[in-house]
Write a structure and sequence with these properties.
Blueprint (H helix, E strand, L loop, with lengths): L5 H24 L8 H4 L21 H6 L12 H21 L3 H23 L4 H19 L3 H23 L8 H17 L2 H20 L3 H4 L5 H13 L6
Helix pairs in contact: 1-4, 1-5, 4-5, 5-6, 5-11, 6-8, 7-8, 7-9, 8-9, 8-11, 9-11
Length: 254
């Protein structure tokens, strides 16, 4: 994009910060199976330590962290740093999506895909799992995007076949032959599902590059015997980071 409208760039950052604020709620509540629509169907946002309801002034994205120094105003309980990370990462992803696609259908879809991946990254770190409802939402997004781009379903089916083959290969190499690598079989299935979703979201060459990066990363972890020191946080970053890099920086794949 040769010309950047500064107002639109700022607007994309504002949208990203707002979505980031909501994304922190999803990242915290989805693994706990709590309602993510607290103002209407569940609990309002509150401090996990003193249970005091968080006031609107303390829900301002990014600024709330700086104004409160990452602590509850009432009990001084430290707010998880993942909240601040989500807000910053989401803001940055919205800016990148604007720079790549400007405002339009692609901006909306790719921004939502990015937000979903950032939430998955955090839930993998905090709970070593991917919320199934979020994986379903991400699947719907990538399928809609693929149909809009291809204008037919044959490419989608072809990509799905490639994804199934790669996911099966990954499962047998790194779970069947290395049973101590992942904490549970459910965790392995989360990663398999994400590989399938990535096969539908990315072009064939991009997906194969994504899968190659995953295989190399896990091979290195096994060879260097670094599994025990990293598995307690989950391996979501091994999948999410290269996926987002290829998705938001397509020039790197040329």
């Amino acid at each position: 994009m040769e010309y950047v409208n500064l107002f639109e760039l700022l607007l994309s950052a504002v949208f990203g910060a707002i979505f980031g604020s909501y994304a922190t709620l999803f990242a915290y509540r989805l693994p706990l199976k709590e309602s993510c629509f607290g103002r209407y169907f569940g609990k309002k946002s509150r401090c996990p330590n003193c249970e005091k309801i968080i006031k609107t002034r303390d829900l301002i994205p990014v600024l709330n962290w700086l104004l409160t120094l990452g602590k509850c105003r009432n009990c001084k309980f430290k707010i998880p740093r993942t909240h601040f990370f989500i807000e910053i990462a989401t803001t940055a992803s919205f800016i990148l999506c604007y720079l790549n696609f400007s405002f339009g259908e692609e901006f909306i879809i790719y921004s939502l895909i990015s937000v979903s991946c950032i939430i998955l990254l955090v839930t993998s770190f905090t709970h070593k799992s991917f919320p199934q409802s979020l994986l379903i939402f991400l699947l719907v997004l990538v399928v809609i995007n693929r149909v809009l781009v291809d204008q037919e379903i044959f490419g989608l089916i072809y990509s799905a076949i490639i994804g199934v083959v790669c996911a099966t290969f990954f499962y047998h190499i790194f779970y069947k032959n290395n049973s101590t690598l992942f904490a549970t079989q459910e965790q392995t299935f989360d990663y398999v599902k994400f590989i399938l979703i990535a096969s539908l979201a990315l072009a064939k060459v991009e997906f194969l590059l994504f899968f190659l990066i995953i295989m190399i990363n896990f091979t290195v972890l096994l060879l260097l015997n670094m599994v025990k020191s990293t598995r307690k946080y989950g391996f979501g970053y091994v999948f999410i980071l290269p996926f987002l890099a290829i998705l938001l920086f397509p020039l790197l794949t040329i």
